[in-house]
Amino acid sequence: MARRRSLAERVVWAVTATVALLLGVQSVLACLAMHAQEDELSETMLEREVQQIIAHILQPGLTSTGTLIDSSRVSAWLTREGAGSDAIPAQMRNLAPGLYHFGPQGKSLHVAVADTDDGRLTVVLDATSAEDRVDRFTYTMIALWIVCVAATAWIARGVAAIAVGPIAAATRTIARSAPDRPLPAEAGGDEAGVLIETFNRFRDRVDDMVEREREFAANLDHEIRTPLTTIRTDAELIGLEADLAPPQRRRLERIAASVDEIIATTESTLSYSAGRFGAAETIELRDFLVASSSALADRATARGLRVVVEVGADERVSVDRQALLVVVRNLVRNAIEHAAPATLRISGDRRELVFSDDGPGIAPDRLARMFERPERDHRVDAGAVRGTRVRGLGLAIAKRLCDLQGWRLAVDSPLAAGRGTAFRLSLGGVPREPD
Asked: What phi and psi, each to the nearest 5 degrees, are found at residue 101?
């Protein structure tokens, strides 16, 4: 298989070919113009010779037929009713009046035939020397073309080394990081081919990683479902068999609800990772928000967070219920961990929900990184005072889920008096269809 040219070689060939083509066209046009000019000049000189001969040599009835002029450049003959035609070269004897061009034995002869009062005049102009000069001009143009093309190729190599050198160096670096084994990326190699091959390897590696993650998630779902079912069953049996106080019975109910939430969240996570969304269902927005935040009531009370839902009772929205549940609970958990002690108000309507707290707020230079996945704290809050700087992935998960659903999640802080944080969740009404 033929070796593919490197990027630098392609640049050299492209520049050289372009210059060669342009100079070649220019040279050809110059040579054609030179030849046309020589022919025009020779014919002009020939017509002038004819006029001079007619004016100064021919005497009607007195000039004899045959050869009139016989020099190195000009020859002339006069024929009268066939007389004197023997002196004219054979190929010119029977020519009609007009201009002609002959090239016998490497010569260039321009011929003019004209009828005069004393007979038919034939004049020949030898333009061989002029043609030789035109030929030398052509050879000179060819030599200059070759020199210019060679110089262009030499200069293009230097320019390509400067322009393409960083790309070639980057290609070698990328090739050394290719999965499985390093790729050859010599200076004379095909950089484009190396980059494509490296990209394909990385893509295959990413596909394998995604597939392994999905397989792991499916296995995890299978493995944890049995113990979770056991926990839920035991909690229900305890509730049926034991005579429990109301607080204890509420705890058992929360255990069962939490188990259901874990199972539903695991199933939805597997669906989202595979590009499948849950079916949209119409929910009563206020009741949904109250129920979602109530599941975290104990944690919120322990940390000093009061949750107030200020959404109208008549607000309904058609969404993926499980996806919205994950987003809402992550936003409430974030307020518990980072804003408490404070008050979290959930307001808005079916188009946009606002989760605003009056906690310490977030430094402006850290707002842009609020939804990043790295586990480092970007928030200035009470947690910093307690020495807790680790932030979980709740906001990153919520943001990613919003992106998949076609929702918009944004954050604004600080608010009035330099305190407070507001997360704005724009729902849009219906979840986005999978690609």
From this structure: -135, 125
| pTM, full prediction | 0.48
My answer on whether omega of the bond before 414 falls inside 30° of 0, hence cis, is: yes
**Per-residue confidence of the chain (435 residues) as pLDDT tens digits?**
456 677 778 888 899 999 999 999 999 999 999 999 988 999 899 899 888 888 887 777 677 888 888 888 899 998 888 888 888 888 888 889 999 988 888 888 999 999 888 888 899 999 888 889 999 999 999 999 999 999 999 998 888 888 877 877 777 777 777 777 666 645 446 777 777 878 888 888 888 887 787 777 777 666 777 787 788 787 777 877 777 788 877 777 778 777 777 776 776 666 666 666 667 889 999 999 998 888 788 888 889 999 999 998 888 999 888 888 889 988 998 899 888 899 999 999 989 999 999 888 887 777 777 887 654 444 434 444 344 434 457 888 888 888 888 899 998 876 555 578 899 999 875 444 444
Pick among 3.40.50.2020, 3.60.140.10, 3.30.565.10, 3.90.550.10: CATH of 278-426: 3.30.565.10
Name which of 249, 246, 228, 229 is nearest 238 in CA terms: 249
